Amino acid sequence: MRERSGLTTSAWCRAELMCVLLRHVREGSLVPKQAWELHDLFRDDVATGAWELLPVSADLLRDVEDQLRRLRRRDVFLRAGDAVHLMTAKRAGFKEVWTSDRHMLAAAPRFGLKGRRV
To answer: What radius of gyration do the chain's Cα atoms show?
Structure first.
């Protein structure tokens, strides 16, 4: 990360990352010390500007709600956090999002975004 700049995501990722790290501790693929070291690295990257975290506001969440209501489709599987990330990208004027999540990739066009696989 230290060599990268210009990475942008929703501030939602703070909670998301902690849940992922805690899940890995719970499942035994990380010990707590490793999880906290990874979390500290992320926080350092945010502090040094490697990541720009865009705010999650009530207006953004209302836009997520409205967009999901417009979908009205049974074939779109999307978690709340992924919908927040997609709406954050759309509102920021991005044309594409990068993710390894297959559901987020499939839903990206519904938000006017091109999904790119990491």
So the answer is: 15
pTM of the model: 0.86
* Overall number of domains in the chain: 2
Length of the chain counted residue by residue: 118
Residue-number span of the structural domain to which 74 is assigned: 58-117
The answer to whether residue 72 sits within a structural domain is yes
> DSSP label at 108?
G
Torsion of CA 21, 22, 27, 29, to 10 degrees: 30
Residues 1-39: pLDDT tens digits? 445 557 999 999 999 999 999 999 999 999 999 999 999
Residue whose tokens read 């709406």: 87
Domain boundary among 19, 36, 54: 54
b/e map of 61-89 (b: 16 or more CB within 10 Å)?
eebbeebbeeeeeeeeebeebbbbbbbbb
